[in-house]
Amino acid sequence: MKTKIITLKNDVKLIYTYVKEVKGFDLNFIFQAGALNDFENKNGIAHFSEHVLASALSTKNWTRQERRTEKNKYLRSNAGTNLYEMRIYYQDSEEEIENILNLLTDPFENLLYNKDEAESERQIILDEVATRRKTNNYELTQTIYKNISIDKVCNRISEGLVGGTAESIKNISVDDIKRYIETYCTQNNLTIVFSGHIKKSKLIKLLNKYLKRIKVKGLKGYDFEDYKGYKKPCYINQPAVEDNKSLMHVMYLYSKREKYTNLRDYYIKNLLQCCLSEKLFDYYRTKRNYCYNAYAILSDPNYYNSCEFFVVCNNDVIDKVVYEFNDFLKFYFETIDEELFLKHKKRLLKLTNYDYATLSQISSTNYFNYEMFNKMITDNEIIKTIKSISYQDIINLSKEVFRVQPYLIVLNNDNKLKDFDYKNFCKEIKNTHKIVFNQ
């Protein structure tokens, strides 16, 4: 497997991976514009536009729908929008590449959307919004943007986040969607991530043919380089949306944002995340039976690199969950060992072998420095990189993460932590860090 970056006409970026082992392909069209580029008073229009585009594609591709019954192992499609990207994804057999490119680009040229289809997608989104607003995770995300972020753009979209509010979705017209697509879904905002059994020359020829349908220039999407950052670490306690469930969220913003410049940093974070998640679940669920679920995430960099812990539990034990977080850290450092690290390393190596979409999945436009793709990257190099990661690398990153003061957000309806001493909470964690690392 070989991967490199190619710049096409009109500044379209192509991240291309040739894979000889399979007869299919993965194709991602990624526009660097998402919810942070929603028009004023039109929260959710980026997400709505993605739904309409995906609906237009699936409706016209009738032969593709028929082929579903044949259980084509390469056949899959999806679309998604986050704060700063809109992504349309296809996986199919290699003989379908021109058909897919034709269908994918046709809506951008004609911009003729069936109003009945748009209304159908509107109702789907309204149902999604209604369901999502009833969850603690949705409330948590809103809390972070409202109370922690100091960026005005992020605060503007916090009420609806990516999906938008019901009120704004009801007021978005088909003409609004056309205007959004013409403004942001343009070639200067487009990155194409491809992996599969199609020669580079053939793919570029087809792309040059069909990309003409997409408008060349539009407004650039939101750039996280301009993000204003976060307030100082703090403690927030507010009511939960789900009556019978509470949520503890501990967030470490441990270093300033930097795009990945090598794969090694990416996989070190991946391995630490696996180790932390297993230990968090082991402590809170297996040993204490406090929670429904517990997991850790080392996020890809936006403004800061972050390490975040989530514990979902019954209302009556949220105080125990929070007060024992420092005990969990002691447990983590006392019980993590090379055997656990090697287990997850072995799993990662197994996933990487013959996983021809590996680089497609990790090369999102906001996370990677394109310079790293100026040289050819092979699957053997990826495996070699993972093998080079040592247990000490995981310890070193742990040391970096836990040296900073954490944010603590609790969603709970019982006021069990009304008088919680956040300063002492942070002091205990700091002492644990000193003891563990002899500082």
Q: What does this protein structure show overall?
A:
The chain has a seven-stranded mixed sheet. It has helices spanning 45-60, 62-67, 97-110, 115-132, 136-148, 152-157, 166-170, 174-184, 200-210, 263-287, 318-323, 325-335, 338-352, 358-362, 379-388, 391-401, 422-437; strands at 2-7, 13-18, 24-31, 76-81, 86-93, 190-196, 235-238, 245-256, 291-298, 304-314, 377-378, 407-411. It has two domains: 2-222, Metalloenzyme, LuxS/M16 peptidase-like (Cytochrome Bc1 Complex, Chain A, domain 1); 232-437, 2-Layer Sandwich (Cytochrome Bc1 Complex, Chain A, domain 1). The protein contains 17 helices and twelve strands. Helix 10 (263-287) crosses helix 13 (338-352). The model is unreliable at 60-71 and 353-376 (pLDDT under 50). The protein is α+β, with helices and mostly antiparallel strands and 439 residues long. It is globular. Strand 9 (291-298) and strand 10 form a beta hairpin.
Helix content: 40-55%
The CATH topology of the largest domain comes to: Cytochrome Bc1 Complex, Chain A, domain 1
User: Number of domains in the coordinates?
Assistant: 2
Q: CATH superfamily assignment of the largest domain?
A: Metalloenzyme, LuxS/M16 peptidase-like
Please state the CA-atom Rg, rounded to the nearest Å.
23 Å
Shape type: globular
Question: Helical region count?
Answer: 17
Name of the top-level CATH class of the largest domain: Alpha Beta
